[in-house]
Design goal:
heterodimer, A: mainly beta, four-stranded antiparallel β-sheet, 13 strands, B: mainly beta, six-stranded mixed β-sheet, 11 strands, 56% strand, globular
Chain lengths: 115, 112
């Protein structure tokens, strides 16, 4: 009963390095989201996806790219990491039900430090 | 103006007392509302959905006021284990997209 799985759980990057965070869900959800959370702040939406092959920008998309080639996976890429991207990253998924939407199911988070 | 706003707190609550707090949202077309709980920057977990008629789950009561565009959460008989950050979540439906928008959270500290 995996739900939403994020890998890796921890990572330290040097400034300028690139990396990809993987989010996988086994619930057949249409919607997937990437958030970042910084100390003292709430969750801020980076990018989201309403289905395979479709993505959209959230409120803080700069410096990130995403891809949703398969319905169950949502990848978040950092092309050139900066210290300002040090954060905890959460992936979530949800699905539409009637005229509304279900709650979001979260992964355990990825703690990224850029030095 | 933020799309979803919450009083950050902290709300310091004696054990056994009642605490209530609100969350306001800007998009009148929002259709789904939730309260999440987050502990120590772990992943948020669903506390309860918020229904139009209001709903209870044990010691927790959620209300929705569409006219004034806010939802509320009331915790009765507070326990030490209720200490957490409570996140308000609103589905901001625009066009065909279902974007879940989180408030910054309200911190609740229950003291012995």
């Amino acid at each position: 009963n995996a739900g939403v799985t994020q890998t890796p759980k921890f990572r330290v990057l040097k400034t300028g390095q690139s990396m990809t965070l993987l989010c996988a869900q086994d619930m057949n959800h249409e919607y997937m989201y990437w958030y970042r959370q910084d100390p003292g702040m709430g969750l801020r939406l980076i990018h989201y996806s309403v289905g395979e092959g479709t993505t959209a920008k959230g409120e803080v998309p700069d410096g990130y790219n995403v891809s949703r080639l398969k319905k169950q996976n949502f990848l978040l890429g950092l092309e050139s990491a900066a210290p300002s991207q040090t954060s905890v990253y959460f992936c979530a998924s949800s699905y539409a039900r009637g005229r509304g939407y279900t709650e979001a199911f979260f992964g355990q988070g990825t703690r990224l430090t850029v030095v | 103006r933020k799309e979803v706003e919450q009083d950050p707190g902290p709300f310091n609550v004696p054990e056994g007392a009642t605490v209530a707090f609100n969350c306001t949202y800007s998009n009148s077309a929002s259709q789904s509302f939730f309260w999440y709980r987050q502990d120590c920057r772990k992943e948020p977990k669903l506390l309860m959905s918020v229904y139009s008629s209001g709903n209870e789950d044990g010691r927790f009561t959620a209300q929705l006021n569409r006219a004034s565009q806010y939802i509320s959460l009331l915790i009765r008989d507070s326990k030490l284990s209720d200490s957490a950050t409570y996140l308000c979540v609103v589905n901001m439906k625009r066009d065909s997209w279902g974007k879940l928008q989180f408030g910054a959270g309200t911190q609740v500290v229950v003291t012995p």
